[in-house]
Design brief:
5-stranded mixed beta sheet, 7 helices, 3-stranded parallel beta sheet, alpha/beta, about 220 residues
Length: about 220
């Protein structure tokens, strides 16, 4: 909030909670979000904007959702700005692979159930499913996949080919927001559930026994299924 309040310019992403923009009372605000098939600006254009606006406006805030260093291009943007002698600082965020399961009482690690977890992108820079998903599917770890909705059929097929058990799986769309939607099923049932409840991006996919062992919360975010 302090950073946004003191900004001369705010460049914000598609997944940012826009309520934060109310604190930018003295700043020019530019949307630079990128969603599947729709880019307001390319990454190169965003990099150039950061530099040009820092030189002409002063204090630029690059407002991102979650953690800018988990599939967020944060390091790339800082490295680019640093080439031009622009001073940078970071306000850490909570990445959706941790924040969204926690808000739904899903513990990514649990004693005797899951000793570790993977966080994997569902879409590489070549628009292919990450090879790490195949490796993770053979482990006992909890697996969290971001940007994977368009690859859900491939993910399900990998698990069906690599395992004999029918693991629990949760898909949470618009996590932590009032518009959140959630379905819980298994590898064999999830595709039909997603179609039935019309889930789409942005959503995270959580695969593992911890999904079945989610704690019971005393309150829930509005909009859950």
């Amino acid at each position: 909030v302090q950073a946004v309040e003191s900004a001369d310019l705010v460049l914000y992403d598609a997944l940012v909670n826009e309520e934060l923009l109310q604190y930018a009372k003295q700043a020019e605000i530019i949307f630079v979000g990128k969603r599947f098939g729709c880019h307001a600006y390319s990454q190169d254009q965003i990099n150039d904007l950061i530099v040009s606006m820092a030189k002409s406006k002063g204090h630029v805030v690059r407002l991102k959702g979650g953690d800018p260093f988990v599939f967020g291009r944060g390091s790339e943007e800082i490295d680019f700005a640093s080439q031009f002698g622009i001073e940078t600082a970071v306000v850490p965020g909570i990445s959706s692979p941790m924040g969204v399961p926690a808000s739904n009482a899903i513990s990514l690690t649990q004693r005797h159930i899951a000793e570790s977890f993977w966080v994997i992108t569902g879409k590489t820079s070549e628009h292919k499913l990450s090879k790490d998903v195949a490796l993770a599917s053979k482990s006992s770890a909890t697996v969290v996949i971001l940007m994977g909705m368009n690859k859900l059929d491939e993910i399900v097929a990998l698990y069906q080919n690599n395992r004999t058990d029918d693991l629990p799986i949760a898909i949470i769309q618009n996590g932590t927001r009032p518009t959140q939607k959630k379905v819980i099923g298994t590898i064999n049932s999830i595709t039909a559930l997603v179609e039935e409840h019309k889930l789409a991006s942005p959503a995270i996919i959580i695969i593992g026994e911890v999904v079945e062992n989610a704690s019971k919360l005393t309150s829930y975010i509005e909009g859950e299924l």
